[in-house]
Amino acid sequence: MAVRNVAAGRNASEAIRAEIPGAIVHVLEMDLSSMDSVRRFASEFDSLNLPLNILINNAGIKAWGCTRSVDGLELHFATNYIGHFLLTNLLMENMKSTSSESGVEGRIVNVSSWWHFAIYPEGICFDKVKNPSR
Q: One Pfam family, short name please (predicted)?
C-alpha cells in the first residue's frame, strides 16, 4: 500500500491481516503531490521484486484556496492528476512483466469524485499551472 501517513497505513495493514490471515501487506510511504516522493516509492516498490497485477489510483485532495506543491504545481493538479500519471508510468514496466510472466492481464483503475465539476469554468489552463497568481 502506498500511504501518506505510515502509522495509519500500518493500522490498515494490521486490520487487513486480522481479516485475512496470511495476507502479505507492504506499507510504503508516498505523497502524490511530490514527484520526488512518487519516484522514491516506485523505486522502493521495484526493489521488492513483487508482481503487480492491479494498480488502483485512489488518492485525491480538495483544499480551498490556491496552494502549491513542493514542485510548484497547483496542489490539486499535482496530487489528483500528475502524481497518478507519473506513478502509473513508473510502474508500467513491472505490470507488463507481471502480465507476461503470469499470463494474466493487468488492470489500472482510476478512481475519481465529483469535485472535478468545481474546477475553473474555463478548464485547466496548462500554461498557468505553475503561475502563483492562479
A: adh_short
| Grid cell listed for 15 | 486490520
Contacts of 58 (CB under 8 A, 6+ apart): 109, 111
C-alpha cell at 14: 494490521
pLDDT in tens, 13-59: 999 999 999 999 999 999 999 999 999 999 999 999 999 999 999 87
Contact 6, 27 (CB under 8 A): yes
Helices (H), 23-74: 35-47
C-alpha cell at position 100? 507476461
List, in sequence order, every beta strand (DSSP E) within the chain: 2-3, 28-29, 54-57, 107-110
